[in-house]
Amino acid sequence: MANRRNSNDVSGDDSTTMPTGRVRRATSIGRLAAGVAMREGATRVTNYGRSAEDRDARMSQQQFRTAEQIVDVLGTMKGAAMKVGQVLSFMDVGLVPPEHREEFQAKLSKLRDMAPRVAFRDMRRVIETDMEAKLGDVFAEFDEEAIGAASIGQVYRARLHEKPAGWGTDIAAVKVQYPGIDAAVRADLQNLGIILRLAKSVAPGIDVQAVGDEIRERMTEELDYELEASNQRQMARLYRGHPFIVIPGVATELCGKRVIVTEFVAGEGFDAWQQKDQDERNRLAEIVFRFYYGGLWRDGMFSADPHPGNSILMPDGRVAFIDFGLFHKISREMVENQAQSIRLCLAGDAEALLQHMREIRWIPPNSGLTPDDAMAIAEQLVWYAMVDEESRLRPEHVAEMIFEISDPRSPHWKQTRRATVPAEYMMSLRLAGMAIAVCSQLDASVNYHRIVREWLAEDEPQSDLGRAEGAWLRSRGR
To answer: pTM of the prediction?
Structure first.
């Protein structure tokens, strides 16, 4: 993710030494794991003889404290460990019991904004080494104070000697990897099993193997800024001329393995969005939904990190989407498999849905699940799109959705635990959960059902944004 900040938020004068060895970076995790195990044992002992209500309260408090400590440790590490924190953060407040939701939401917000403080002299060395040139030879001006932070780097503002073709400005955003981050990530990936076992202690439904495999693959890709530049160029071409979505241009010749230079976009961040009136929040939520889900259903390619910090409201009302390090492409077959699942769910055809989910290996043949079970699982995942009416999503709705499909205390646990969604679908499901979580934080009212039907049933758009996007698609022969 790439969070826009004020210049005072990230100092260019301080320096943090990043531990890169597996043993050193595992030490913090190991201490946390030992503490969690001790608390779990103590809770089991002290719960003996207590009432069910008292036991639930103590377990609830323990779960919250464990989740808090995981956030604290992950937030200091930067690397794959931080990416695990981002995976957890998309679950929003669903990680902890309802009584701790508000408190934990604030904790997660801090996690998403944590960044190491690296002196600019160290970041400058990364830039000049990667570009094989002095800073002044590449940039006319370069602001030494970082304006933003990403999970593996910092973002700076600079002015180019010449405005690139197609750009509206000569101002660039320069994202630079932290020194030593590649070694830190490799160490974290070796320790990933420990981290994920800790995550499982607060999210019992998490598939440790599938999550681990995906994080390893995606983090390796995310370290390659040349690949990210290619992803962003592809998306910029795809959305050229779009009526309300902007993908900033890329200065290809200036991008390298550890530095990426893109068009700078000025505007309002997500915090300002949340202060808008109801109509504007509705509009922004629909834009977010159309961008992330539209990329999945139309093109089979999407930014897999729908974080609020990756979108900027421009003065003209359009929304710019940035950061394509965590990017994913899926085959048309996979797109159609997921689309057909939702079509059958919307049609209420439980028998066909169960058969389809078996055919695409989301449910094993010997699971014992009934058609009603399959429909119940699907409804928990797409309930916001099933009814033809405006849905006003809130964070607690997303938390409840996650609880229903991933927590052993849920009445649906016996059914959902037998589902075996293949790992290759994980990123698109993560996208779905995170995009809806972002919409919920806007407290917006949107008829998601009608938008989904545009993509899956070829219905005519019903909203102003839908009609504008439809005209743009037709103009491009899509």
So the answer is: 0.78
